[in-house]
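Researcher: Let's run the pair from yesterday's discussion. Sequence first, then tokens, for each.
Model: Starting with the first of the pair.
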Amino acid sequence: MEFKTFSYLDFTVKSFVRLDSTNIYIKNNAAFLADKTVIVAAAQDFGRGRLGRSFFSSVSGGGVYLSILFKNHPKDLPPTITAGVCTSIALEEIYGINIGIKWVNDIVLPPENKKAGGILCESMSSNGSLTQIIYGIGINTGNIKFPAEIDDIAVSLYKINNRQIESGIIIEKLLGNIEKLHRENKKTIIELYKKRCVTLGQKVMTDICCGFARDIGSNGELLVECGDGKIIPVHTGEVHVL
């Protein structure tokens, strides 16, 4: 049940106690939602991640879980890269520490680079043309314990100062950064991403080859130097840091 609606900048924020998934809610209700509608849930029963994975978000108050509907997303900006940059900068400004991004969509906390959040961007089309983009963003802000299967790879921002930042502060900072960075060009967004990408310079295993992550391409692809010296662009799939 919806319990709060408010406006911030050009966004309309609808807040719920619990949803199956904020991305799914938008996909099911997009026709009735305005551009730049933000759906927030204190908890999700079926939080979703990239490549069909689940995203742990079942404990009420344990994190910030939201999705944003864009019916007029800047055409030049790659959604996942842009959402990752906006999220990491917002958290840096709040917590005062460096926040990394593991290609392509994991928000990580250096130096161990454990996962503190994730991005799931989805598109919807009508009559064969792309018309709407969803930014799905989940951030671990107050979780003290994680399920055993992810305990060694997940982390909560709570550990930074042993206190949970109010979700409203994070949401407002995030939306402010989105509003600002949506006015930037793609080159600027890519450069901001590269500065935070902890995958660069690492030996990686991809679905295509094993090699070294050398750069981020002009559309956000990971450029991997394989064993023969050839640079291969990786647009999707698994990337494991070795």
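Model: Moving on to the second of the pair.
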Amino acid sequence: MNRENENKTIKKLVMWILIIVWMICIFLFSSQNADESSELSQGFLRSFVLKFLPDNISRNQNTVDFMEHLLRKCAHMTEYTILGVFISVQIRLYKTFRREWQKVLAAVLFVMLYASTDEFHQLFVTGRSAQVTDVMIDTCGGLIGAGLTAAIVAILHGRNKCREGKGGLL
């Protein structure tokens, strides 16, 4: 096996490890019962957000509840944005798809499938439920991750073309 193939094999293995570890992290967050999950969100709010808001906002329970809900949805999207990036990179390493939209679509479909299984898993966790809206939010996160990956690859590809004197994006 030549050096280039060896490097590609190592990159693929590293990406599989990152993907699996990240999926386990998502699974563990989803395994928290409703009280544990809420406590984590509220702890973050108290430590990093509410400290910097005026008392009339930070003491209003409706506002705090709304902020907690928003924080939880942003956390969902962020978890799956990261997964979308990891999956997109892996898809590129395998060179299975030629067209950019196929790479993005494959990554988004993978994320949507994992998000669906994760929501199903939550049916068995005390105080949690499966939400179709969460699958949609997670899938949007995957789309953001896959889109960011595609954009970064396009920019880097354009830079390489410019360096070679062939034009490009920049």
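Researcher: Give me one sentence on the second I can quote.
Model: Residues 42 and 135 are 23 Å apart (CA to CA).
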